[in-house]
Amino acid sequence: MSNSFPARYGKWAVVAGASEGLGAAFAAQLAERGMHLVLIARRSLLLAELGERLTAEYGVEVRCLALDLADPSFAGALADAVTGLDLGILIYNAAHVPVGPFLDAEDDAIERAVDVNVRGPLLLLRALAPAMCERGRGAVVLMSSLSGLQGSPHVSVYAASKAFNIVLAEGLWYELRAHGVDVAVCCAGAMRTPGYVRSFDRDVPGMLSPEEAARQALDALGKGPRLVPGRINRMAAQLLGRLLPRRAAIRLIARSTKHLT
Predict the structure, then answer these.
(1) CATH hierarchy code of domain 4-260
(2) Average pLDDT per block of 10 residues along the chain, 261 residues long
(3) Alpha-carbon distance 61 to 52, whole Å?
(4) By the 8 A CB rule, do 165 and 121 touch?
(5) What's the CA gap between 250 and 257, in Å, rounded?
(6) Structure pTM?
(7) How far apart are CA 84 and CA 103, in angstroms?
(8) Taking Cα atoms as reference points, which of 226, 194, 195, 229 lies closest to residue 213?
(9) Distance between CA atoms of 40 and 44, rounded to whole angstroms?
(10) CB 246: neighbour CB atoms within 10 A?
(11) 33 burial via Cβ count (<10 Å: 0-12, 13-18, 19+)
C-alpha cells in the first residue's frame, strides 16, 4: 500500500500548511508512502527541520517554500516551483481560526480567515489541478472540520469557511474523477495539534492524533468525496447532520464552544 502512491498518483506531493500538527503528519505519512514533498508554510525554520527529518528517515526529496497562503501571489510562486515535477497529490491543510463572538472579531482576522481558508484552496487548485488532469491521474485532499457541518457559534467564520470546502470538494470529486483525479474532503474532529492547544487546550471525546487522522484520510482516497476520521467523530457527524434538528445541533455546538467567549 505505502509504495503504491507514486505509481498511482505521481511522485510528488504538495502539502500546504505543513509546518506542524496535521500538516506535518500528512507530510510524514506521504514520505512513508514514497512521495517526494513540496512543503508550504510561513515558518521556514520549522519547514526546514521537518524536511531534514523526513529526508533522513525516508530518503525522499523535500523542497520547502516559505509562503504566506493569505497572499494571493503564493499560487504563482508555487506553480513556478513545481514546474516539471510529476505532481500527484495536493493537500490543503492550512486554516486561520478567529475565536470568539463574530461581532467582537477584528476585521483583519476575518479577512485572513477568508484569504487562507477560502481563497487559498481555490488558488491552489486553479494553479496545479489542470496539469494533473492533463496527465490523467492525481489526488486532492481539502481539510475541513466537523464544525463545517452546521453553524458553530464562537467560531462562526471558521465553520462557514469549512462548509465552503466541503461543498467545493464534493463538486470537484464529480468533475475531476473523469480526468483520473481523486478528490476528498476530510471533516476532522478536534486533534491535539499545537494550533489546537494554543486556541482551546481542552480534550474532547473522539480526539485523534494528527498522525492517525492523516493516515485515515490518505487510506480513504478514491472511496468517496467526504470522510470523517475516527469512529466517535463519524457518530457525531451522523448525530449532528441527520438525526438532530438543525436548531438542536447548533445549540449543542454552542454549549461546547461557550468557553471560548
Answers:
(1) 3.40.50.720
(2) 81 96 97 98 95 97 97 96 97 95 96 98 98 97 94 95 98 97 94 62 76 95 93 88 86 80 58
(3) 9
(4) yes
(5) 11
(6) 0.91
(7) 46
(8) 229
(9) 9
(10) 11
(11) buried
* Catalytic residue annotation: 158, 162
For the chain, how far is it from start to end, CA to CA, in angstroms?
45
Sign of CA dihedral 174, 33, 19, 38: negative
Instruction: Give the closest residue to 16 by CA, choosing from 83, 98, 71, 86.
Output: 71
Kindly state the cell numbers that stand for 22: 496535521
Q: Where are the domains of the chain?
A: 4-260
Residue 187 is predicted with a pLDDT of 95
Tell me whether strands 12-16 and 226-227 are parallel, antiparallel or unpaired: unpaired
Set of cell numbers at residue 56? 533522513
How far apart are alpha carbons 48 and 183 in whole angstroms?
28
In sequence order, the 6+-apart residues with CB closer than 8 A to the CB of 79 are 127, 128
**Euclidean distance between CA atoms 143 and 96, whole angstroms:** 12
Residues 6+ apart with CB under 8 A from 125: 90, 140, 172
